[in-house]
Structure formats: C-alpha cells, structure tokens
Known about the structure:
The complex is a heterodimer.
Chain A: H1 5-20, H2 29-48, H3 57-78, H4 81-84, H5 86-89, H6 98-126, H7 136-160, H8 164-178, H9 189-193, H10 197-203, H11 208-220, H12 226-250, H13 254-257
Chain B: E1 17-26, H1 36-41, E2 51-61, E3 66-70, H2 77-84, E4 92-97, E5 101-104, H3 117-127, H4 132-146, H5 161-173, E6 179-183, H6 191-206, E7 210-214, H7 218-224, E8 227-232, E9 235-241, H8 242-253, E10 271-279, E11 288-290, E12 295-303, E13 310-318, E14 323-330, E15 338-345, E16 353-363, E17 372-379
Parallel strand pairs in B: 3-7, 3-8, 5-6, 6-7, 11-17
Antiparallel strand pairs in B: 1-2, 1-4, 8-9, 10-12, 12-15, 13-14, 13-16, 16-17
Helix pairs in contact in B: 3-4, 3-5, 4-5, 5-6
Amino acid sequence: xxxxxxxxxxxxxxxxxxxxxxxxxxxxxxxxxxxxxxxxxxxxxxxxxxxxxxxxxxxxxxxxxxxxxxxxxxxxxxxxxxxxxxxxxxxxxxxxxxxxxxxxxxxxxxxxxxxxxxxxxxxxxxxxxxxxxxxxxxxxxxxxxxxxxxxxxxxxxxxxxxxxxxxxxxxxxxxxxxxxxxxxxxxxxxxxxxxxxxxxxxxxxxxxxxxxxxxxxxxxxxxxxxxxxxxxxxxxxxxxxxxxxxxxxxxxxxxxxx
Amino acid sequence: xxxxxxxxxxxxxxxxxxxxxxxxxxxxxxxxxxxxxxxxxxxxxxxxxxxxxxxxxxxxxxxxxxxxxxxxxxxxxxxxxxxxxxxxxxxxxxxxxxxxxxxxxxxxxxxxxxxxxxxxxxxxxxxxxxxxxxxxxxxxxxxxxxxxxxxxxxxxxxxxxxxxxxxxxxxxxxxxxxxxxxxxxxxxxxxxxxxxxxxxxxxxxxxxxxxxxxxxxxxxxxxxxxxxxxxxxxxxxxxxxxxxxxxxxxxxxxxxxxxxxxxxxxxxxxxxxxxxxxxxxxxxxxxxxxxxxxxxxxxxxxxxxxxxxxxxxxxxxxxxxxxxxxxxxxxxxxxxxxxxxxxxxxxxxxxxxxxxxxxxxxxxxxxxxxxxxxxxxxxxxxxxxxxxxxxxxxxxxxxxxxxxx
Lengths: 258, 405
C-alpha cells in the first residue's frame, strides 16, 4: 500500500479536477452550500418556529451542517467511484481501496478547508478559545476513519449492486432530520420527558456523537463527554474494520462486474 | 466471498510465470444486476449457467522467455492474460507472476480523458506502483518514444485510436517490467510504429524480460517469440517451439496462411490430408501462377483408422466463397495407410485474383467439410474480368452488304 502512495495522490488529483471542471466558483460552492442551508434552518427554526432557546443558533447549526455535509458527500461520491474508475480497475492490479479512499480524502480536504474558514468565526462569536480546541484534530481523525469505513462499504456494494446509490440518497434525508443538527436533544421537552427516545436518538445514530463532540468543542468550548468520545472511537474502529474486511472479500471480481 | 483456492502462494522468481490447473468461468447474463440478497450470499439464483473461459490451464514460463499466444476468438487468450496480470481471480488452480507485471490489454483503458498525455503517463505509471521520482526519470523517454510531440500536452479525449496505442505502449514499454503482457492492441498502430514496438520489445527481450504476446498476426509472433501456446476452448492445445506451434495453429484454423475459412476437423476423421503442395510447370513449389500456366497439385493422404472406400475431394473457391470447381476421386491407399496423388491442370483457366484450394479426405460418402485450405494467387496479363478464363478472341467482321442494292 505504501508503494502506491503516488497513485493515491494521482487519484485524488483526478477527483479534484473532475469536481472543478467547468465550474466558475470551484471550491467556493463547498462554503456556499452549508451557509445557505444554515440560513434556511436558522430562519425556519430560529426565527419563525422557535421551538427551543439556543444562543448563537447560526453557529450551533453550522457545526452540525458542516460535519453532516462531509459525511453525506463522502458517501454519495464514494458509492459510484469504482464504477467511474472502471478503466483503471480493468487495466492493472493495484489496491482497489485507493479509489474510494482518494474520493473520501478529497472530501476531507474540502471539509478541513471549510472548517478552517468557519472556526475563527465560531471562536470569536462564542468565545471558545479554550484548550478543548486541541481535541479538534483528534475528532477530525476519528470522523475521517468512520466516514472512510462507511464509504468503502458503499463503494464496493454499489459496484455489485447498482441500487446502493439511490438507496443511500433515500436514506440520507430522513437520517439528516433524525441527527442532532438543528436541535439539541436534551433541551427538547418531548425528548427529555420521554423514557427512552433521547437515548435512542443519541446512541443508535452513529453520526450523532461526532456532531455532538464537534459542537462541544467549537460551540461550547468544552471537551466532549468521555462516553461520546469513546463511542466515536468505537464507531470509527468498527466502520474501518468492517469496511476493509467487506471490501477485501468482495474486491476480487471487480474487474468482471464493472 | 468467491470460492478461491489461491491461498497457498507459489514462490516464483521475478519474470517467472506459473499457472496451475487454472479455471475460470464468466456469467453471461446480459443484465449484470443482482439483487442485494444474491450479492450478500454471493450466488445467483436465476439465469444461464456461467460459461467457462479457462478449463484447467497449466503453463510454466521461465524468466526471459518469449511466448506467443494464439487461438481463435474466445479460446481464452485474453482471459489468461487478465489472470496473469492479477486483474481477474481464478475460481480454482493457482497463478503466480514474479516481479513487476505490466499489461497492455485494452486500448486506452485507464486513461483519464480530461487529462493530458503527460499527466496520463504519471497516472499510468502510478498504477504499477512507481513513484513520482521514478516516473520523472522516464517521462522524457516515454514522450520521445510515443512521437506524440506537442499532442502530449493535449487532453487524451482528442486522441485517435492510433495515438492511444502509441501512448499506451510507450508507457508500458518503459516501466521496467519483469513481465510484459501484450494483447492484440498493437495492431491498431501504423506499420512504422508497429515495427518500432517490435524493436523495443526485442530490446526488452535482450534485457532478459519475459514476454507474453497475444496476436493473430503470425508474422509478429514468428519474429518475436521462441515459443507458442495455442489455446483452444479454454485449454492449452499446443505448447512448444514457434514454427511447430504456428503450423499447429494454422492446421487448427484450417488454413495455411492465417486467412480463409476456419474449418473444424470433420466429425468423421477417417482420412487426413497431411500435405499439400502446388507446383508450377517446372515442378517448383509455388503459390503464385499466371493465368494459363500449368499447375500440379500434389496431395499426401493418411488414413487415421481402417477405411473401406477412401476418397479425396478437391475444391477451388473464389474470395467471395463461391465454388469455382469441385471434383473428387477414389484413393488407393498403400499398405501403411498413406497415399500420394497429383492433380494436373494443363492450363489454369482462372482470371487474376486470390483463390482457396480446399481439400478433404473421406471414407465413402463425401461430406461438405474440408480440413485443409491453401490459398494461391493468379496473376493475369490480358484484359478480362471475372473468374473463368474462357480464352475467347475478338474479331472484326466486314460489314454485311445490304439486301436489294
């Protein structure tokens, strides 16, 4: 795998080129999209339909949206990645993992860029320049591991079964609404008084601890709860292990099915 | 997920190739899609059974050997190369390819259409695990060899098929592979470039590389390869020196010149045509005659089993496949089961063009299948078109006096 690191960078370059081709604003869109989304949710849930009192709601929203966008974009671009590069797969023997991994890594670069631009704003407005920020690289690494594992599964399954992408598209929308992006679970009255709804929403959804942890650091200025950190660590480990083992078992026939 | 028995890895030297009892079949369902359940259980519940492409192929190629692979379409040549290149796994058997194996299989495969030729050189090299520094050393040589000139910095989507081959071969030939696997693709390039490729290949051979070349062009194989593997129906039908291998191949294809019709041996293999020779008026073997020349066809026959009424059928066909002439004769076999006959044509009444001479031995009833086809050419000096020379002459007639004058 180390031998192929140059291939990996070439694939990532390819992916970037594909994204910018014919686009006047290029990477700027990755900033515009979450901001527009954030504006709409802020207007809807922060102004009109004020369900809960959250300080600096736009910042609160933005953290969740940025993390979610990375997760969603990675899955949706990794799923067809092997099909897109079928020419390479049919040409040579190289670690096929490099293809979805390059796709996800490009998304990571975009995510990091957006985060870098957004972080000073959040810190300035929320006054969260605390030692907890040092945890941010750790959180990014864990999130990357989790997203990479999920994306490898999506990519290899989609190569054999072309309905994976539409299934993903269909699943991601309700998933978005069930994730703590525009609400804070423990301050919602209905959830707080319900015997188990809060627990389910917080612990069944593997992306929730990541959103909560990023939010603790960037919005709250405090380190995430240990439970959430451990959950994120476990989610990343399980996703990576599962992803690489499924990928390895199924990749043999790739040149035939693509 | 597939049943694979490749677990035990074979130990091979760089450039060595070992294939042991390799089998592989492909599903031929037109609609590739499977249900999620089928994917997860990895089995197909419907559709036709898979078609075998390799049925127990065993090959051992030593480092530095040059092997030509021939066979009809669908005989398993390309599948073998793809297995050797590690692109397709085997269902049973073992495969090992020592060192760096570079394959040139599909025209333009792996090229990024929006990238320039130069960028594709880097990507192509990276696919084989070369580093940026290693590629930078080679990129100028690759560009020079490809002769693409300024087109090297143009997106490859603007390239022609010939330019794809130039780029693809130039990359593959400069990666310092221990083993080069080349499929047919060279045929797309123009003749000058093909010659250049063959020269480059012979340099690589001199440097001790292993080469496996799939081609229908007997000429290239004869020039490059010391050994020929003839594939037929997913199995190795012949493996040996090039001269014998090509002869075997032509016999399998039912032609001596690699063209003409491919004729399977007749189901009734009773009498075999073992040798055919066309001779000119001076008794010399020839394949080119002038219209009106005498021609002698000498045929050797061999009985493959006890026969009661052996016969020889002879047919001449034009290039569109229509029958020009057919005849047959009973054959008197020698005690050892062989016979030699000559068919004398006093004056070859064919007009200019290529013709096929087809021959077959039979026991009793003559069939329609031929097991030997020899192509010959007729040159023509006088002005006529068609197939048969009717030997007519023109004559100017004096005007007929009008009646009643």
